[in-house]
Amino acid sequence: MMGRLTQGVPRRILIALAVLLAVLLLAPWVANDYVLTVLILILYFAYTGQAWNIMMGFAGQLSLGHALYVGLGAYTTAALYVHFGVSPWLGLPVAIVIAAMAGAFIGYLAFRFGVTGVYFAILTIAFCEFARIGFDHFRWVSGSSGFFLPVANYTRNDLWNLRGSPAMFYYVMLALTVVAFLICHWLLRSRIGYFWQAIREDEMAAKTLGIDTFRYKMIAVVISASMTSVAGMFFAFYYNNLFPEQVFHISRSIELILGPIIGGIGTLFGPIIGAIVLTGLAESIFELLSALGWTPPGARQVFYGVCLLIVVMLLPDGIWPPLARKLGLDKSRDKTER
Questions:
Q1: Which residues of the chain fall short of a pLDDT of 70?
Q2: H or E segment at 12?
Q3: CA-CA 20 to 30 A from 213: which of 95, 107, 143, 284?
Q4: How far is CA 111 from the centre of its chain?
Q5: pTM: predicted TM-score of the whole model, two decimal places
Q6: Which helix (H) or strand (E) holds 99?
Q7: Model confidence over 121-172: pLDDT tens digits?
Q8: C-alpha closest to that of 128 among 66, 74, 55
Q9: What is the spatial distance between Cα 209 and Cα 30, in angstroms, rounded to a whole number?
């Protein structure tokens, strides 16, 4: 399996990835809790960015309501754990099925009736808002009052129930991010990946070539929704509290998609680069401002806006494509230029 995944990938990329993985594996041994928290956030946004990238970057379907799938994964696994004592790993398949069904319903409704482009994006926002309003009145998960997971002081890490130290959560998120990267790499090099890219570039031409565009767009939506729901499970058990206004808010969806946009839509490394820039650099700047005693309100949103403006004006393809050319990797098969 690994042989097929690495086939055709330049040796220096494999070495660089191996070194990076080794550094990440050793990080908890040298990093303090603050740095570890920042690394967890970077990995979280890298993972969700990869999941969203399947839908938009690979298949060309713009979703601005991806927080819906995060929320469904979070509430499903958390409710099963709190009410029935079900391990999040056992509740995860249920969450994935629910998120996949939601994605399939939205996709079917849109693609069957020709809702595309910006109208499809608006449709995804609408369903995310429906979910927010619905969960606001869903008493089984405490509605707008917030749903809280029990927190205890553990003397040991309980991986089965996702209760433990920041280091444990870090390794869980690292494993999920690596798996997501490998899945996206495999999908991009597979037959379905080439079909997605054909649909993204020119859907009418893809239809003319005999590609079942409806089927393959549906597959992209279902896979993307399913992967995003896994991030929802992590979100619930890491933060231990869920509020509909927080989880399903459109700002949550925007946070998920900024990484791939800034890093490079349709590339494998784009979501990772974007997550590092948005989260790592932002936290460094805010830490510096805090040390200087100046923490202006809305600074984070201003920083995101500035990053997006710079990328749109100077790097319309994102950071990774020109960086790959600088490194002599532009001919590698680990990316797809838009």
A1: 1-10, 153-155, 329-338
A2: helix 11-30
A3: 95
A4: 23
A5: 0.93
A6: helix 88-112
A7: 999 999 999 999 999 999 999 999 999 998 876 668 899 999 989 999 999 9
A8: 66
A9: 54
